[in-house]
Amino acid sequence: MNVGPRIFEDAVETIPGRLPASEAGVANSSGREGGEPTATSPLLHPSLPASPQQDGGASEDATPTPQSPSSPASVPSPQRKASESGLTPVGAGTFDYDRMYEDDDDPELGSMEGHGSVIHHLLSQVKIGMDLTKVVLPTFILERRSLLEMYADFFTHPDLFCQIADLGTPQERMVQVVKWYLSAFHAGRKSEVARKPYNPILGEVFRCYWDVPEATTSDKATPYELVTDGPIPWATNNQLGFVAEQVSHHPPISAFYAEQKARRISFCGHIWTKSKFLGLSICVYNIGQGCVSLLDHDEEYILNFPSGYGRSILTVPWVELGGTCQITCNKTQYSANVEFLTKPFYGGKKHRISAEVFSPGERKPFLTVDGEWNGVMMAKWKDGATEMFVDTQKMGIVKKNVKQVAQQSPNESRIMWKEVTAGLKFNQIDQATDAKCALEQKQRDEAKHRKENGLTWETKLFDLVDENWIYKQPLVKRLSQQN
Prior knowledge:
The protein is 19% helix and 25% strand. The protein has eleven helices and 17 strands. The strands form three sheets. Strands 3, 4, 5, 6, 7, 8, 9, 10, 11, 12, 13, 14 and 15 form a 13-stranded antiparallel beta sheet that branches. It has a two-stranded parallel sheet with strand order 1-2. Strand 13 and strand 14 (376-381) form a beta hairpin. The two termini are 32 Å apart. Residues 1-80, 83-93 and 109-116 have low confidence and may be disordered. InterPro entries: OSBP_sf, Oxysterol-bd, Oxysterol-bd_CS.
């Protein structure tokens, strides 16, 4: 089978129209309101100096042309803004890109009324019920990370996930799956303000791992060794490794996989994000499923994901989750229903959640959970006893370990999006827009090349099996090959 070129897999190519750093001026940072991008932005190679003073961005409809330099005094330089923010340069003309991603300091969006002409232009492109997949949203609403990295936040409490494998009975394991699942959504939203992660580029990959707190006796007895054939070859068998890949662009589908070898537990999932305009809000349907696999118990727990809603998009936008989700184990016949409740138009509370957990063949739950998915959730057992089930406000978030940007492969998320991230970090919206346009234009050019030459895109890490995206080398497969 012919295979088309992979984006950024071997090298970062120079984008046509790039201006040398010595000639490029600083673009006006007021943000575009429907005008054409003016020039292309360089896609930074790890070995090249990162010079956010270069302008430009690939036009989505026209061949890019060089922009006349603006007065450097018109906008504070990125270097000066870096100095003011305390960001440490890591070399001549470069910044600490890793800290840009780690800093949790996205400014509040405030009211959209201040961006009236941009919002008006956006609304002129859409109608109620319209699919928003191909609608270009303004750059200033972006969150400084890829959607692939946001999916890693499902495992921001790796101890809750890994402990599923430790428990002795099917009921205990199902309850622990529910506990991990209910705690898996709050970390993905760093604030109530609705910011949108970057749409991953086809072939983009994100990798990380976590140190798992409160290691069990069995963990401590297991020698620490690198899992060189796992998703993160530099992580050990006692750490939880994670990898995600953008496996499709139209429709946009992300696949992700996590495992801890010591406990012989893994997770494989995929999400197709389908967005729809609802008038005063936007809905993102997270279509797909995930599977928790416990090798020592030969159990699989199948689950799905709630939809996300961006509310009040004309004033101060905020995010909520909604929809009914299920968790089922075919082997043990335990199941759970989870309801993410959207706020009523009048009155009511935000972010409510309700869950019921059922024994095999039972119609009445032996456990119910109520509360807020980004706050406190209380459990009530069949005998009437109640207890704190999850308190996301007191749970410590375990920081993920990500390879430094300078050491990443060219198709990894943080290095691909670092110019966009730098532009957003220093509020240079034109530069962020131009860098984003350059990435997206390269993706379109390569798709056109494949179509014209009869080439087929092939994924690197996941295969489509029936309707599910499956990691090519899961733990169960590798262990069976060893035996």
